[in-house]
Each structure stands twice: as C-alpha cells, then as structure tokens.
Specification:
Layout: H1 5-14, H2 16-20, H3 30-34, E1 43-47, E2 56-60, E3 67-72, E4 87-91, E5 102-104, E6 109-111, E7 118-120, E8 126-129, E9 138-144, E10 147-154
Antiparallel strand pairs: 1-10, 2-3, 3-4, 4-9, 5-6, 6-7, 7-8, 9-10
The structure holds FE2/S2 (inorganic) cluster.
FE2/S2 (inorganic) cluster (FES) is lined by residues 94, 96-97, 99, 112, 114-115, 117, 130-132.
Length: 165
C-alpha cells in the first residue's frame, strides 16, 4: 500500500478504518517499514502438531537478547492458538527486576525464582501474587498451516524503553 499526502488526507476525511475494512494486512506491513517505523519480525518457532500438553519451548523474540517461552497449557487461554486455543507464549523476563521466570505445568503458571512473582499463563500473564506490578509481556502467535509464528508483543519487555531496538 503506497499512500501519498493527498491519499492520506482523503482517507483521513473518509475514515481510515473504513478504507482498511476488508483489507488483509501483513504481520509486518511493508508500508510501515518504508515509512521508517520499526516493525516486529515474523519468526518461525516450530510445529504445533505433536506439541505435548505441558511443553515449554524456549525461543527468542523479537531479538536474540529477549528470551521467551511457548507453552501448551492443554486448556483454552487468552489469545491462545492451536488445539483448543491452548498454545501461548511469553517473555521470560520477570517484570519486577528481570529474573528469568519458569513455567510450572502442574500449576499452569510462570513463576519467578527471585521474589516469587507468579503469572497466569492462561490469562495474558496477569499477576497472581508477588512483587511485580505488570503482567508478563505476551508474545503474539499465529499459525501458518502447522507452523507457529511470532509476530508481535503485548506489553513492554523488562529493561526496555521500546520492544523493538
Ligand atoms: S525479579 Fe521476579 S519477582 Fe522480583
């Protein structure tokens, strides 16, 4: 989508949302990159088939300095994908002071070993108890056939001013 100034003004008058209704937008829109905006990368994580309930697959997103985990909860989760909408992913940097949280499948929680902040993996990483004051950032996932892909982050990753550096 290439918009010049005139197009933008016309769209502003008629409503950008109305224009975009029905359009399929890519995960990392090329027009945003062309405009100099930083965009989230689209990263392949792995196949969803055969992923056992309770599995915790470590990966990095949106860059190598940002550890994350994809987990199969076995029950529906907020913004989950795959079988039963049960697959979700989170940054593993605790929002309190950045310690690495671990997934505890028996409780379906992500727990920080430093000061025991506990985050609900089925409910957007919301805090259940502990020192943290912010939920864990949730990695946005989508499916391309059987392949799980990360395409964004909800929430600010610990220690960053912006998620995309
Ligand atoms: S660093 Fe996680 S609770 Fe303090």
């Amino acid at each position: 989508m290439n918009l010049d100034r005139r197009d933008f003004l016309v769209l502003s008058g008629t409503g950008v949302a109305g224009y975009l209704a029905g359009q399929v937008l890519p995960a990392s829109p090329a027009w945003a990159a062309e405009a100099g905006e930083k965009v989230y990368p689209l990263v392949d994580i792995g196949p969803v088939s055969g992923l056992p309930v309770g599995a915790a697959i470590e990966f990095r997103y949106p860059d190598e300095d940002s550890p994350a985990v994809m987990i199969h909860l076995g029950e529906p989760a907020k913004d989950g994908i795959g079988p039963n909408n049960a697959v979700v992913a989170y940054s593993t940097l605790c929002t309190h002071k950045g310690c690495p949280v671990k997934f505890h499948p028996e409780r379906k929680m992500l727990i920080c070993p430093c000061h025991w902040s506990t985050f609900d993996a089925a409910k957007s990483g919301n805090i259940v108890i502990g020192q943290a004051s912010q939920p864990l950032p949730q990695i946005k996932l989508r499916l391309d056939g059987d392949l799980v892909q990360a395409y964004g982050v909800d929430g600010l990753i610990y220690g960053r001013h912006t998620n995309i550096l």
